Amino acid sequence: MKESILTKEIITSKIVSRIILVCLSVISIALSAHVRIPLPFTPVPITFQTLFVLLSAALLRETVAYVSIMIYFLLGILGVPVFTFASCGIFYIFGPTTGYLLGFLLCSFLVGRSLSYFKKIDFFSAFFSMFLGEIIILISGTSWLKFILNLSFKQAFLLGFLPFLPFDLLKLYLAVKIFLKLNPRLKQIIQ
């Protein structure tokens, strides 16, 4: 009896469920942008955004996750303070973190697509897919830093990739564990 109560849907429309999940994804990424650890040697802070980008990409899969990241990006460009440093607007896209934001878009598509190739979703498949997404974010961010600050590849790597790798691996591990807990239930709700 209790089990049937716990699995009964409040909202039965798959479209409404997806809209709610997109909104939750955008809000989570926006709020996590403001939880940051500044690093004195790089213009890019450590944030919790990648945790929620990876979760959104894995849980919502490529199309819906891509839409949620695109909405987040557009809100920031339109002036809603969703980016780190509470900055926003069209001029923000010329800043040092833009490459990472563009990486979010690529990651959201890649992680969901990668997961669809696995017959069984387990720790390995989730970790592998999210690791690919994380690397895309870091490469995109590092490439942008190289371009915008006119750095050598080594300098860009030392400022935009290497300092973030340990913390990003921790966020990746957390994202995988959360994903494995939520995925079975979320599949029932939105698919």
Describe this structure in words.
This protein is mostly helical. It has a single domain, classed as Arp2/3 complex 21 kDa subunit ARPC3 (Orthogonal Bundle), CATH 1.10.1760. 70% of the residues lie in helices and 2% in strands. The protein has seven helices and two strands; from the N terminus they run ααββααααα. It has a two-stranded antiparallel ribbon. Helix 2 packs across helix 3, helix 3 crosses helix 7 and helix 5 packs across helix 7. It is globular, with a radius of gyration of 17 Å.
Secondary structure topology:
Blueprint: H1 2-6, H2 14-32, E1 36-37, E2 46-47, H3 49-77, H4 98-116, H5 123-149, H6 153-160, H7 165-190
Concise overview:
This protein has a two-stranded antiparallel ribbon with strand order 1-2.
Q: Class by helix and strand content? A: mainly alpha
Order of helices and strands: HHEEHHHHH
Task: Examine the coordinates and then state which fold CATH places here, giving the name of the CATH topology.
Answer: Arp2/3 complex 21 kDa subunit ARPC3
User: Please, how many helices?
Assistant: 7
How many beta-strand runs?
2
Strand content: under 5%
Q: Mean pLDDT, rounded to whole units?
A: 88
Proper CATH architecture: Orthogonal Bundle
* Cα radius of gyration in angstroms: 17 Å
Strand order of the largest sheet: 1-2
Q: Report how far apart the termini are.
A: 25 Å
Unreliable sequence segments = none
CATH class descriptor? Mainly Alpha
Total domain count:
1
Specify the helix fraction band.
55-70%
Overall, the morphology is: globular
Largest sheet: 2 strands, antiparallel
